[in-house]
Amino acid sequence: MAAFASALLLLPLPPAAAHPQQRQLRSREQRQGCRSRRYSKVVAYYGLTTPPYKLDALEPYISKRTVELHWGKHHQDYVDRLNKQLATSMFYGYTMEELIKEAYNNGNPLPEYNNAAQVWNHHFFWESMQPEGGGSPEGGVLQQIEKDFGSFTNFREEFIRSALSLLGSGWVWLALKRKERKLSVVHTQNAISPLALGDIPIINLDLWEHAYYLDYKAVIISFKLFRKAAFETSQRIRVLRVNLDQR
Amino acid sequence: MALRTLASRKTLAAAARPLASAVSASRGVTTFTLPDLPYDYGALEPAISGEIMRLHHQKHHATYVANYNKALEQLDAAIAKGDAPAVVHLQSAIKFNGGGHVNHSIFWNNLKPISEGGGEPPHGKLGWAIDEDFGSFEALVKKMNAEGAALQGSGWVWLALDKEAKKLSVETTANQDPLVTKGANLVPLLGIDVWEHAYYLQYKNVKPDYLSNIWKVMNWKYAGEVYENAAA
């Protein structure tokens, strides 16, 4: 059972004491022999993963205040709501990726889908960014982008176009379409993730208003974009700089 | 008042044209203009801040109007050319931006400063109908708040009159879908905007506080008039 519980920890552990304000919600495990009978078996829930940089590290593009709220409140709320559901859910014990795919239920999402996907989407969003990033990707990702979009500039333009044409809340993604074996730019509504559709996300950008409203209001988003080097074993993450003219 | 310069200018420009202030015609295409608010931006404080009202009206609503007009002009051109795929393609922009214009125009009328009677519970026929269909006014508020809080992503929560069934109902629509997308028989009496832009600067992630405070500036007189006209 203990091994089973640790398998739930799909998301990487945060660096020790990275931020004093971080909440140590991770893997609330209570072992046999606990005082309370309620916790007489091993239980494991999802924890809030910490962005791999300080909360003010994305300034001036994304303010510390925005990250505090976005990570500390919005992301945390999704984690809390998911855990509450998992306490009585058939999906308790699934890995996050299994959970997202199963709960998506071929386009008729079950109640757990929304929270699980938003936990994952936000985690992926934080991982996709890096202070002092920018420039062009290298190596395998760049080659694949050039193959599938013609050039990096073309990809960037398509990414921005896709972001601006999203109507309502959602995400824009660079994803590897598994069947077509091709990189593609897609936007998705609300909590929909390419993972649920069987594809492989490379980078994402949050287009919910809470992601940018305090910093950019309705006017202009001057965003940092980023990529996740999922093709490379190094998992190095870089940031591309992109200007998004807001709707 | 200084904050309203943009809107006032637009309204004046519209009034100078021969047609009604909300609609004008150019090159054969009917276009829409941003309606003026029936109160000052700061008049709904502390329930809704003046900054939110200004941005919401001058930026968001104004953008829906501009993009709606743009889409309508493109539609006109596509129809003139007999370009059927373009006509179909424009439907989503028309629904989104046209819906944004329709929804916000209703929303401004749904709100009223407290000093002018905002927040006073409904009287008359609508008050009776609410008691009959929801049990009580408090039960309706609770239901709309719960549906608004549970709505995923951007959208609206509505108090609707079903003209055919002659019954009130609470409905939600996604994004900027206007209530008419759920049926031509549904008349919007009240719409609450639950897009994050409607509350984020003031309430941040605490949507339930926005939902409970907005009732303090609700214009039930307007809803009652719409109800009586539609139910008659």
UniProtKB/TrEMBL annotation, chain A:
Q: Where is the Manganese/iron superoxide dismutase C-terminal domain?
A: 138-218
First and last residue of the signal peptide: 1-18
Catalytic activity, EC? 1.15.1.1
* Catalytic reactions on record: 2 superoxide + 2 H(+) = H2O2 + O2
Its Gene Ontology molecular function terms? Answer: metal ion binding; superoxide dismutase activity
Q: Which cofactor does it need?
A: Fe cation
Cellular component (GO) terms are: chloroplast nucleoid
- Manganese/iron superoxide dismutase N-terminal domain location, by residue? 46-129
Q: Which UniProt keywords apply?
A: Iron, Metal-binding, Oxidoreductase, Signal
Q: Which Pfam families match?
A: Sod_Fe_C, Sod_Fe_N
Record family assignment = Belongs to the iron/manganese superoxide dismutase family.
Q: What does this protein do?
A: Destroys radicals which are normally produced within the cells and which are toxic to biological systems.
Protein name in UniProt = Superoxide dismutase
Automatic annotation (TrEMBL), chain B:
Which major enzyme category is it? oxidoreductase
Q: How does it assemble?
A: Homotetramer.
Q: Which reaction does it catalyse?
A: 2 superoxide + 2 H(+) = H2O2 + O2
CC cofactor? Mn(2+)
Which GO MF terms are attached to this record?
manganese ion binding; superoxide dismutase activity
Q: What does this protein do?
A: Destroys superoxide anion radicals which are normally produced within the cells and which are toxic to biological systems.
Q: What is this protein called?
A: Superoxide dismutase
Gene Ontology terms: cellular component:
mitochondrial matrix
Per the UniProt record, the source organism is Oryza meyeriana var. granulata
Its ancestry begins with: Eukaryota, Viridiplantae, Streptophyta, Embryophyta, Tracheophyta
Give the EC number(s) under which this enzyme is classified. 1.15.1.1
